[in-house]
Amino acid sequence: MSDHDFVSGGKPIAIDRGEGPFLYSTDGTEYVDAGASFACTPLGHSHPAVVDAVKAQVSKVTFVDSSYPVQSREDAYAALVAATPDGLDQAWFCNSGTEANEAALKFARSATGESKIVAATRSFHGRTMGSLAATWKDEYKKPFEPLAGDVEFVPYGESEALADVVDDETAAVILEPIQGEGGINVPPAGYLETARELTDETGSALVFDEVQTGMGRTGSMWACENAGVTPDVLSTAKGLGNGLPVGAVAVRDWIADGAASHNATFSGGPVVSAAVHATVSTLVEEGWPDHADEIGDYLVDELEATLGDEVREIRGDGLLIGIELKRGANRVARDLAMDHRILALPAGRTVLRLLPPLVIGEDEADRVVDALTEIVVPDAETES
Ligand SMILES: *Cc1c(COP(=O)(O)O)cnc(C)c1O
């Protein structure tokens, strides 16, 4: 909306404030946030536990670099490592998802001494030169080439294709346990296990990018837990600080021990650390991943019952939901926002993506279902 912003692409809704699963525009209109914030607010907007923790920390000490022990950073590390699968006992904080994946790839290369990165078609890992090299879409890459090299792409979800390329020269296999940006693509059962077996055999690092799938969204704290597969490096960001800019990688000891020099000035700053500690502990203690599982099932059941044959497919897990439409997703997202005050996201040309805060209730879920029914099902309006 700003005259000076040449990147973001404005939407005609000026946001004034947020509370729980709702956003309010400057004219006081209430919107259900069904994905507007890209999964960055799992606990809902301006959650009191996070707000209070951040306020207290910002006035106590806003910043001191990570070579000085600070309680909020110690608490954030402890909470994150306790919340990640067993075996991922060390961690490093950064500022975003792309930076977490940059670190993941650098750590994997230095720990293995190899350079080849295996990534999947339709992947999204971020937009800095290294993460971008492992991202699929040419549109994001071409104008910026040459990017970091030695990346080989294989079709997502195909175990045999993975077996063909993962070898002794492979530093890392990087995968989203469910692809987000690429269209909410759920791999077939056994795919992540195969990736684990192949990387074990070749001594390569298995990197799971949980930037979008993590923080309770799929009904477990991390999507890899649903598949029972623990990677060597797990990257996270988006919801990690409930809206504050922070990312992290959690790693196995062999990765930490083999990691060459890497750091960032703002790594684990006291304020974002306070947000991480509050977010992770609230999510875990209050059982929000279980709620995501239940409400996600409810939402998908209702969507399937009412949208039926008017959509091609509804897929995902928990509150990471993709609806494959028979028409353009951009237009449906616009109608949802302008006519029904529901904010959702496209993921590709025909997939509508629902990523509401995990605190969404049945009432809000019903509002999403009713609105989509009116938009997608012919004559629905006259029936209701
Ligand atoms: C959003 C996203 C990223 C990039 O995160 P940024 O914080 O925007 O850099 C990386 N991987 C996945 C799976 C994402 O969804």
From TrEMBL:
SUPFAM superfamilies attached to this UniProt entry: PLP-dependent transferases
Sample GO molecular function, one term: transaminase activity
Cofactor(s) the record lists: pyridoxal 5'-phosphate
Top-rank lineage group of the source organism: Archaea
Keyword line: Aminotransferase, Pyridoxal phosphate, Transferase
Record PROSITE patterns: AA_TRANSFER_CLASS_3 (PS00600)
A Pfam family that the UniProt record links to this protein: Aminotran_3
Claim: Transferase is one of the keywords in the record: yes
Alphabetized InterPro entries for the sequence: Aminotrans_3 (IPR005814), Aminotrans_3_PPA_site (IPR049704), Class-III_PLP-dep_AT (IPR050103), PyrdxlP-dep_Trfase (IPR015424), PyrdxlP-dep_Trfase_major (IPR015421), PyrdxlP-dep_Trfase_small (IPR015422)
Family assignment from sequence similarity: Belongs to the class-III pyridoxal-phosphate-dependent aminotransferase family.
Protein name: Aminotransferase class III-fold pyridoxal phosphate-dependent enzyme
